[in-house]
Specification:
By secondary structure, this protein is of the alpha/beta class. It has 15 helices and 17 strands.
């Protein structure tokens, strides 16, 4: 009876909220969990779940994985809205069930917040767990990196039969396989990159504290690492990129290696980090019995997730939105923007809501200096609740204050963006992204983020 009531309340409240034009991605799940605290455990039985966690890339990787499963005939559901806390995940399992709890689809791709993982993983008993990477992020929520690692380890403790998919190039992520029983699928890139210098979150060995040696780096602390003292090192990947043939503004072309088999793949998204996301998704699909070669075929048709390298064409305005929330991700966005050969305008929106992280000290570890190393960046608009902090950071990065404008009003910001004629790059934190994305989507005829 409790199960029936929890499902009913969730479905009705979600429908009512959506009639009001809102997502209904949290409250209905909270209500259901209050009535039936273990509703995820009940409704996930018999479903092959891929649980995706990690600091950066969860949403895009989940969309890639979802497409790979659907293209392979494994009809799945997913939390496409990015609502990755327990209540948001509960909503999706309930949406996949009828009033009596019977599942409609037998596969699920679930993005999960790192802090929520230790509770969600035992409830879902996933077929595969994919950990994209681990970086310093939202110190007010996650604390030190060790807290994130321990949270994921706690979640995996009672899941010995789960296939673990790990980034071989991330020394922090790879450490999750140490002393673990069960199958692990590693993925990675077998050549270095030309990324801008940035702060590393893992200079020292996680096992003994010695300074790592690197054969090469891709970016941040990712690369072919090894410890000269204890011998901890990068594992040989099961699925890897042996060569990056093309890395463009809108796509990339790579050579993928799976065992002795090599094949070419096109990713319809730009940037090196999306190559990592593609490899991550392939490893999850591989864990569910799909060959890497078949999974890779889906990458040429992938579309950007909401707010993540998402493009908008509104009248004469060309806008690309790139979500930022920590130094590693922000540096990748700056690197992408700075690689432009045409003039562009930048809009940086810094908020300090709980979903953004109330501690904004991370902006001082980002390479904003990279924005001003060439003359491509024409104008900068700064907005958000901490706009003045951002303007100060840009000043110290070498920015010309006469080219910077602070706009506090959201409506005025949209008006100013649409008046720009260069390519516009918007770098918002999460809460700013949702608001701006909503306005731009309405003007550009796009769907709401939860659809």
């Amino acid at each position: 009876m409790r199960l029936f009531l929890a499902i009913l309340i969730c479905k009705l409240s979600r429908a009512a909220i959506r009639l009001l034009g809102r997502g209904g991605t949290s409250l209905p799940g909270k209500l259901a969990l209050r009535i039936h605290p273990h509703i995820i455990k009940v409704l996930s039985k018999g479903i092959d779940t891929v649980l995706i966690t990690g600091t950066n890339g969860k949403t895009t990787t989940a969309r890639m994985t979802e497409k790979m499963l659907n293209d392979a005939g494994k009809d799945c559901f997913a939390n496409r809205s990015g609502a990755n806390l327990e209540q948001g995940i509960a909503i999706e399992y309930i949406a996949n069930a009828n009033a009596f709890g019977r599942a409609k689809k037998k596969y699920a791709v679930i993005e999960c917040d790192e802090a929520a993982f230790k509770k969600v993983c035992p409830e879902t008993c996933p077929k595969a767990v994919l950990v994209t990477n681990i970086f310093r992020d939202q110190l007010d929520r996650f604390g030190e990196i060790s807290e994130t690692i321990n949270s994921i380890k706690e979640g995996l403790k009672n899941s010995p039969h789960t296939v673990l998919c790990l980034n071989a190039d991330c020394s922090l992520t790879s450490s999750l396989a140490i002393d673990r029983q069960g199958k692990t699928v590693f993925y990675g890139i077998n050549e270095g990159g030309d990324s801008l210098p940035c702060v590393s979150d893992a200079n020292h060995c996680i096992r003994c504290g010695a300074v790592y040696n690197y054969e090469y780096r891709t970016f941040a602390h990712l690369g072919s690492f090894s410890c000269p003292d204890c011998g901890y090192k990068r594992q040989s990947p099961d699925i890897s990129v042996s060569k990056i043939e093309y890395l463009g503004r809108d796509s990339s072309e790579i050579i993928i290696k799976e065992g002795k088999n090599e094949f070419k793949a096109e990713i319809a998204l730009p940037a090196l980090y999306n190559i990592y996301n593609a490899l991550a998704a392939m490893s999850a699909a591989y864990a569910l019995g799909i060959s890497a070669e078949n999974a890779a075929k889906s990458l040429s048709g992938i579309k950007s997730s909401f707010g993540r390298m998402e493009s908008f064409i509104i009248g004469e305005s060309r806008i690309k939105m790139i979500l930022v929330k920590n130094p590693a991700g922000c540096d990748r966005a700056i690197e992408y923007m700075s690689g432009s050969t045409e003039k562009f305008d930048a809009v940086i929106c810094l908020n300090d809501a709980p979903s953004d992280g109330t501690d904004i000290s991370w902006i001082w570890d980002c390479d904003f200096e990279g924005l001003f190393e060439n003359e491509s960046c024409s104008k900068i608009i700064v907005s958000g609740t901490r706009a003045r902090d951002m303007r100060l950071r840009l000043k110290y990065a070498g920015g010309d204050e006469s080219r910077m404008t602070i706009i506090d009003d959201d409506a005025e910001l949209i008006k100013a963006v649409l008046a720009l004629r260069n390519q516009v790059y918007i770098m918002p934190t999460y809460s700013a992204m949702l608001k701006l994305r909503g306005s731009l989507a309405e003007l550009g005829g796009k769907k709401e983020y939860w659809k």
